Predict the 3D structure of the following.
Amino acid sequence: MTRKGWAWFCLCTGTVALIACGGGAGGGAGRACGNDFLTPNYLSENDPADGDPNRVLFWPGFPIRYVIQNAPEWNFGSGTVFGTSLTTASMNRWQTATDGGVDWQAVASESQAELVVRFNQVASEPGAGGTLGSTTLSFFVDTGEIVSASVTINHWPGMTEAQVRDGLMSTISHELGHALFISGHSTDEADLMYWRAPTDRDKAITTRDNNSIRSAYCNDFRNRGRSLPDSRRPIRTITVACPPKH
Ligand SMILES: [Zn+2]
């Protein structure tokens, strides 16, 4: 058990009435507050994409060191849109939603980064069976602590301004949600973390999205001070793929 988990355990034993201790099926060990820390949320739902239980994951501390690769730019009559700007705006969204709890730090190279956001050009707009984006997560199996993450954002020739300004904002924000706290999806189409998304419309972080990320961290977005990962602990790597809604 981590020190953080132990602290929660001690607190919980004294204040059972105030805190939902150990609740929530499928909650990762090391998160002693349980999935129902703040409700409503979707942490204990089954991913509508495949029916599997959502898996709650978390970073052991912030800021997350990131690098953005292959970011394109688009020129419209209204001005130039930069892939890097869409990415940082999406990062700021999660930071604002968590009152600064989620924090980011740009680094110069992939070797320094824990999170890589990579833009990937595909031949044409993704249709049925295609994906708007995907996120690969490596995490300790025993606790759900994330070791590293990689986000892929697909773009294609001839994207409309709405697909770039609104659709990509939604896709990047959604994939960052995976990278921050969940392998799985919401069952409610209103949520940013619903499993399918329109290609030309932006979505906001809803109350359920916000409760979900805060519950994944027990609302404790602490600064770094962690020890190096123990390489003897088993690590699993999974990829979440996110299709368009047509
Ligand atoms: Zn997704």
